[in-house]
């Protein structure tokens, strides 16, 4: 009987201790950082040409929201289907940010990618190859 | 019918028409005068703003919906049956120098392309341009690049009038008959009509209005109504007409074709048939207009969301990079043409 009471007492103490940890640990009510951190990513263009006039590209990655034109002088339109966003941007394109978007977890940067589909020059001619174009996806600092 | 017969029939029938007897009113009677004071206002078209343009002598006039007219241009020599293209420019054939003129909405005249002996222009469902040149029909894209030519006279036809039906078939006519052009082959439609037949004009249901100018005693001037299979519905649909030389449906100020049927007459007057007798609005004579192509549709299509019709895609490629399919270069060209993006 004594042993049974002792076991119950230890068990209750253990439950209380677990409860305290679950409720905040230090007893002051401040929660430690837990779970993913949301943030903003940018798609940046690297072009071998100085006369690009329009581009279509696709961004893949989970939970993309708040897609924003990176240059107000550019025309932008996109279609989002699941984790894929297909974007057209028209304007005098140069190296630099094409668009930004919000992600739910900045630590999942490797889950995001961007691929060039079509490029036209400023006389509307389609580029024969887009293999030398680069698109990078990275977190916007600050 | 021999290859030369239609032209010979036409030449034999250029004598003045006769006074025709009155007859029982048809569904399109009575007619009312829309505008008068011209000499022979036989070549006419409405533009996308609902104004009527009338070629009379050496002048092309602009007639407002209230019937008031002003000179649009006097700078097109020997202008014939004109049309409006997909950019709202007027396209005027001039057989005198085998030149096709383009007249901007502001009335600025420029030489566009050369087409030998063209008498009638028509804009197709994909914005391409067709020209009737009596013995042949010529096809150009919307930018004026030659696509094809068809010898119709050796196949028994003669091309003066040109119209597209709602099913997209190209019909052509002389005063002696109606034919259609199917994959370059001339197909007779009506070749036993009375002399001085004209048209056809289609409504959106496919009904067909033609006109007949009498050249024999006892044979009245009239507008004839056919169904879409070219069976006569009413041989005297409109009888309250002086010698007719053209039919057309009107357009509202938003560019849509309405159910007002106008008839040009050789007495210098354009009359309107009784609208109560008209079954449906006209089928648009300008098959495609840049201003009516939706920007959102163009943008969706280029990011992989199907939104454009085949005719729209074809037209946008033609005014873009003309490489055979719609792509981002064509979309850029559209944005520049419509002023959304600065293309300079």
Question: What report would you give on this structure?
Answer:
- The complex is a heterodimer of chains A (142) and B (344).
- Chain A has 142 residues and is α+β, with helices and mostly antiparallel strands.
- Chain A has two domains: 34 residues; 101 residues, Immunoglobulin-like.
- Chain A has one helix and eight strands.
- In chain A, strand 4 and strand 5 form a beta hairpin.
- Chain B is mainly beta and 344 residues long.
- Chain B folds into two domains: 273 residues, Neuraminidase (6 Propeller); 45 residues, no CATH class.
- In chain B, the strands form six sheets. Chain B has a four-stranded antiparallel β-sheet with strand order 1-24-23-22, with no helix packed on it. Chain B has a four-stranded antiparallel β-sheet with strand order 2-3-4-5, with no helix packed on it. Chain B has a four-stranded antiparallel β-sheet with strand order 6-7-8-9, with no helix packed on it.
- In chain B, helix 3 crosses helix 4.
- Chain B is globular and about 65 Å long.
- The N terminus of chain B is likely disordered.
- Chains A and B meet through strand 2, strand 4, strand 5 and strand 7 of A and helix 2 and helix 4 of B.
Strand content of chain A: 35-45%
Most extensive protein-chain contact, per-chain counts:
A-B, 21 and 22 residues
Strand order of the largest sheet of chain A: 3-6-1-8
Tally of DSSP helical segments of chain A = 1
Mind summarizing the main beta sheet of chain B? 4 strands, antiparallel
Along the chain, the helix and strand elements of chain A come as HEEEEEEEE
CATH architecture of the largest domain in chain A: Sandwich
What is the domain total for the residues of chain B? 2
Q: Tell me the name of the CATH homologous superfamily of the largest domain in chain B.
A: TolB, C-terminal domain
Instruction: Kindly provide the radius of gyration of chain A, computed on alpha-carbon positions and rounded to a whole number of angstroms.
Output: 25 Å
Q: Describe the oligomeric state of these chains in a short phrase.
A: heterodimer
Shape summary of chain B: globular
* Total strands of chain B: 24
Q: What percentage of the residues of chain B does DSSP assign to strands (E)?
A: 35-45%
> Largest sheet of chain A, if any?
4 strands, antiparallel
Number of strands of chain A: 8
- Unreliable parts of chain A: 6-27
Overall number of domains of chain A: 2
